[in-house]
Each structure stands twice: as structure tokens, then as C-alpha cells.
Amino acid sequence: MKEVPWFEHETGDLTPAEQEFAAVLAARASAWPVDPLSTVLLPARHTPYGEMLAYLDIGDPERNRGVLTIGAHFDGRTVRADRLHNQNFTLPDIPTEFTFTTAGNPTETAIRTAIWFEAILARPLIRCEWLHEGKVYALRYEYADNGRGLSEGFETPLAPPELQERLAAEGVDRGRGRIDRAGLGEPGRVVHVRGVKTTQ
Q: Which domain of life is it from (predicted)?
């Protein structure tokens, strides 16, 4: 089977500066604990904003679920990076805790960008699960170091009947508002997904 390279791309689609940036980033990525298919590189001419984009989908392999998309826009000299919209890959209007900028030659900026990706991958990501009759009815991905939530899910039919009734009365049902962690109480199970494990 052919091995998939990290940040796979066609060399002819990139400028010399972009090629240099991509080569350094791909070399660093080869040591990352991710599937190469999770790394994507889009040449500037294939993006609506006219900048090359290198992004990484961070997921939960056990549940085959995407959790976070982070990426860097590179214009040949400057990198602007943050959490990205998971469909159009744009930077947020308001910078998040993941925001990162740097400027310099392509090798320098690629190394700094790789370090940024690596720092996010090293953070302790956990999956909190709430169970009823042995089935997960709610889950939430968050960072164990600060409790910051990244994504969540709720399956109304699997929840305890009394919880279904309470949430319906509050207008917080599947597709109608968010199920926040406080409203569910303590999770029945916490699973380490990736990053450095914290001592509990």
C-alpha cells in the first residue's frame, strides 16, 4: 500500500516559498501522533483568500469523530493561524485561545508553525461521557488543563426519561440549543483521547 505523505500536495501548484514552507512542515509532521490523511495543504490558487492553507483535523479515532480543525494561512512571509471553520477553513472573526501569528522566511515560519501545531496536539484532550443503561447519551470533548469545551453531542432517545422531560421543558433538546456540562452533572466516564495525560 502506498504511504500517504503529510500535507500532501502537487509541487507544481506552489511557489518556491510555499514549497519550502510545506517541506519543513511535512518533515516535522512525520513525528506527530496523527494520521497523514488528517493533514491537508491547499495551494493559494485553490483558496478563496489567495493564501496557502495548511490545516489539521484533530479527531477521536475511537469514535471516528472530528473534534477540532486548526490551520495556518501563509502568504509567503506571514502566518496567521487559529481554530478554523470546519467547512470553509476561514479564520475566526474574533481570535480564539489558539491564535498564532509569525513572520519571516519560509523555513523559520514553518518551524514556528509546526511548534504551534505540536503544542496543541500535546494538550490533554478528554472525552466526557454520560451513560444511561450502558449507552452514551451525551458526550463532550474538552481540554483537561482548563475545562475548555470543543464539541459535544446529545442523543435524546438514549437519555434518562426524567432528563428528557426536563430538557424538553427548558427548550434545550436535540437541535434546539446546547446541552451544557453543568446541566448534566458529573460524567459517568472520562476517556483520555490524546495529548499529555494529566494526573487527576
A: Bacteria
Place of cell 510545506: 22
135 and 82: one domain?
no
| Cα-based angle 14, 43, 2 (whole degrees, multiple of 5) | 85
Host domain of residue 165: 125-194
CA–CA dist 29, 136 (Å, integer) = 33
**pLDDT tens string 144-179:** 998 888 988 888 889 899 888 887 777 665 544 456
Residue 144 inside a domain? The answer is yes
CB 69 within 8 A of CB 84: yes
pTM across the whole model: 0.87
Angle between helices 16-29 and 106-122 (to 10 degrees): 30
- Grid coordinates representing 107 are 523555513
In a domain, 55, yes or no: yes
User: Residue 161 contacts by C-beta under 8 Å, 6 or more apart in sequence?
Assistant: none
Q: Which of 107, 122, 137 is the last residue of a domain?
A: 122
Based on the fold, state whether residues 97 and 180 are members of the same structural domain: no
